[in-house]
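Long-time lurker, first post. I've been practising inverse folding by hand and with some scripts of my own, and I keep getting stuck on stretches where the C-alpha cells seem ambiguous. Below is the full C-alpha cell string for one chain I'm working on. Before anyone asks, I'm not after the true native sequence, just a reasonable design that respects the backbone. If someone could post their per-position residues I'd love to compare against what I wrote down in my notebook.
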C-alpha cells in the first residue's frame, strides 16, 4: 500500500495489486479517525449520552406497570439511531480493473465494519473523458471528479466520490492517475 499524500491528506490512499488492479480510496473522516484511534464505536457526545442513559431508562421502564409503552418508545428512538450508524459512508473507491474498466464502490456500515457495498462498473469502451468539474453550492465552489461516458448517442456524467467530495489535491492526483491508466498517457 502506498500513500501519495500521507502528511496532508491521510484519508486518501492508493492500493496497487499484482493482478494489475489499482484502487484509489478516499475514507470518510469519521471512519479514518475511529480506525486510527483506540476510541470505541461512539462518535460524538450524543452517542455517549444515548449509550449511558439507555440501561438506566431500561431499568426504570422494567419497574413500571405499563412498561411495554416505554419499551416501544425506546425502540422507536433506537431504530433511526441504528439506521444512521449502519448506513453511514465509510469509504469510496475508484478501481481500475485490468481490462481498463472502472468500478465505483461505496462502503457503508458502522465504524470499523463494512456491511453494505454498492458497486457500479463503467465499461472502458464507453469512457470518453475524465474531468475535474466545479459546481456552485450556495456561496461555495465545490470541485468534483467525473467520468463522461457515451453509449450510442446518449452521454452520461458519473460523479466519482459523490458522498465524500475530497479536496482538490486528491482529485488532481486521482485525475492524473486515471488519465495515465485509461488513456495510456504519461
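-- Answer (accepted) --
I ran through it position by position. Result:
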Amino acid at each position: 500500500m502506498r500513500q501519495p499524500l500521507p502528511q496532508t491528506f491521510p484519508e486518501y490512499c492508493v492500493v496497487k495489486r499484482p493482478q494489475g488492479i489499482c484502487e484509489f480510496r478516499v475514507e470518510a473522516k469519521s471512519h479514518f479517525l475511529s480506525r486510527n484511534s483506540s476510541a470505541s464505536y461512539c462518535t460524538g457526545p450524543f452517542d455517549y449520552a444515548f449509550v449511558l442513559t439507555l440501561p438506566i431508562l431500561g431499568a426504570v421502564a422494567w419497574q413500571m406497570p405499563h412498561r411495554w409503552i416505554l419499551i416501544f418508545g425506546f425502540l422507536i428512538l433506537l431504530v433511526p439511531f441504528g439506521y444512521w450508524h449502519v448506513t453511514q459512508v465509510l469509504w469510496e473507491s475508484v478501481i481500475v480493473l485490468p481490462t481498463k474498466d472502472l468500478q465505483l464502490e461505496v462502503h457503508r456500515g458502522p465504524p470499523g465494519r463494512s456491511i453494505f457495498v454498492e458497486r457500479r462498473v463503467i465499461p472502458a469502451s464507453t469512457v470518453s473523458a475524465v474531468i475535474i468539474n466545479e459546481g456552485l453550492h450556495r456561496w461555495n465552489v465545490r470541485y468534483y471528479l467525473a467520468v463522461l461516458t457515451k453509449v450510442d448517442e446518449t452521454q452520461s456524467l458519473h460523479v466519482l466520490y459523490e458522498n465524500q467530495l475530497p479536496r482538490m489535491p486528491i482529485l488532481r492526483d486521482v485525475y492524473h492517475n486515471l488519465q495515465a491508466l485509461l488513456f495510456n498517457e504519461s
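A couple of notes from the structure itself: Residues 67-87 form the longest helix (21 residues). Residues 37-41 have pLDDT under 50 and may be disordered. Happy to go over any region you disagree with.
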